[in-house]
Design goal:
By secondary structure, the protein is α+β, with helices and mostly antiparallel strands. It is built from 11 helices and 22 strands. The protein has helices spanning 5-17, 23-42, 145-156, 194-200, 235-253, 277-284, 296-303, 320-333, 347-354, 360-385, 398-411; strands at residues 2-3, 50-53, 58-59, 64-70, 77-81, 88-91, 94-96, 98-105, 109-113, 116-121, 127-133, 137-142, 176-182, 204-209, 215-221, 229-230, 233-234, 256-262, 266-274, 309-314, 338-344, 389-393.
């Protein structure tokens, strides 16, 4: 319980009134104000019931609405406030009567959303009481699911355009004819069925069947190298986003998808299964990097010698010494599986190399950037020499690049 500024002003006015009226009268006025303040606060002493509305699924970097509202109107005024942990941002965080805010998750994982704070002011505006309403809740922040589902939808509708090399038939759409449908603005010209177009008098396209019942395994490195920042995220964030996109597309195509997260030991292991995208995302969404070197051989052994699969290894191609265990392990894995090594490109390094240096410090930074990029290129060349594919793309495009590699592998029957 606490007095409001209005109560303080009235008590001060009663004190000043002692200069104009007899002292007992001024004292009586002050006591009356204090009594009214106590009664006012007494009317709002009971904690209110607050209803908090928040989507069940949150995605990193995707804004979501959050609402706080009182189930019953208070006798006076109410101000609501929702505290949030540092990895979540809420705008606005407090409001009068009802709070309608926008919550922006900035980090994947499990976060605790504290109880709401409600400050109730009595009908006279003299006394107030601050309550903690409701209970703390766990907010689960997943990777960028909207981007993953957009890729899956593009594949379903035949609108996905792979920037990789061409295969038999339209890019990324399979090789076996299935049906004829109306032409879409994004269709490749090679899909156009000219005979059907001439017969029906409107543009028609061929639809190609994508082979199903294949295995895809996402190996996500959660070691120390994946803690490196890439703008507003880490390398591991970019890898999990891309793995979620591959899992969503695998579900759309009817393939079996699994995942393994590892560092010096296995952190998560989801066996390939049909409709396994939800399990893969649920297993990876809260994985955080550890300050240990990753054991690639251990992770590759976990893949096993089961059915041939496309194994996408999400890691960092930093330099040759750190990548030596990866190269040696990929060579063994390639004997049974199709392997692709995916790494997010560092756009800051590319920017340093392309920008003309203005100072000596800029020249030194560009020189270091060139050395790092050359080292990454040498590692990529060594991996390609084993027969594995190497996928490098900016963080925002890594998911699409991995989906493109996945569709190319299916189109050439590499799985």
């Amino acid at each position: 319980m606490s007095p409001t500024p209005r109560a303080a002003v009235l008590v001060g006015a009663a004190a000043l009134a002692a200069l104009l009226v007899p002292l007992p009268v001024a004292a009586l006025l002050a006591v009356a104000v204090l009594a009214a303040t106590g009664v006012d606060a007494f009317l709002v002493r009971r904690p209110p019931f607050v209803r908090r509305s928040l989507p069940a699924t949150l995605s990193r970097g995707v804004a979501a609405p959050l609402r706080l509202e009182l189930e019953e109107p208070p006798p006076g005024a109410a101000r609501l406030r929702q505290p949030v942990p540092p990895d979540l941002r809420l705008e606005p965080s407090e409001a009068d009567g009802r709070l309608d805010g926008v919550l922006l998750p900035r980090r994947r994982g499990r976060h605790v959303l504290p109880s709401a704070a409600v400050r109730l002011t009595g009908p006279l505006g003299l006394g107030a009481w601050t309550h903690s309403a409701g209970e703390a809740a766990e907010a689960l922040v997943y990777p960028d699911l909207p981007a993953a589902f957009r890729l899956a939808l593009a594949v379903r509708q035949g609108r996905f355009r792979d920037t990789g090399r061409a295969t038999r038939g339209p890019l990324g759409l399979g090789t076996e004819f299935e049906s004829v449908r109306d032409y879409l603005p994004d269709d490749d010209v090679r899909q156009v069925n000219w005979r059907a177009t001439a017969r029906l008098g409107r543009p028609m396209s061929n639809q190609y069947r994508i082979e199903q019942d294949r295995d895809v395994v996402c190996l996500v490195d959660a070691g120390r190298l994946m803690a490196a920042p890439l703008g507003d995220r880490t390398r591991l964030d970019a890898a999990v986003d891309a793995a979620a996109a591959v899992a969503a597309v695998a579900d759309e195509l009817g393939d079996r998808c699994g995942a393994i997260a590892f560092d010096a030991e296995l952190r998560r292991n989801v066996a390939p299964r049909r409709g396994g995208g939800r399990s893969v995302i649920g297993a990876l969404f809260d994985v955080e990097p550890e300050r240990v070197d990753s054991d690639y051989e251990l992770a590759f052994r976990a893949v096993g010698s089961s059915k041939r699969a496309l194994v996408i290894v999400f890691t960092d191609l930093l330099e040759e010494a750190a990548a030596r265990p990866l190269v040696e392990s990929v060579h063994v894995l390639r004997r049974r599986h199709a392997v692709a090594v995916a790494s997010a490109a560092d756009t800051d390094l590319d920017r340093l190399v392309r920008r003309a240096p203005e100072t000596a410090l800029d020249a030194y930074a560009a020189s270091v950037a060139v050395e790092v990029l050359d080292a990454r290129a040498r590692v990529a060349a060594r991996i390609r020499a084993t027969g594995a594919d190497v996928i490098e793309a900016p963080p925002d495009a890594l998911g699409a690049a991995c989906v493109g590699a996945y569709l190319r592998a299916k189109a050439r029957a590499a799985l």
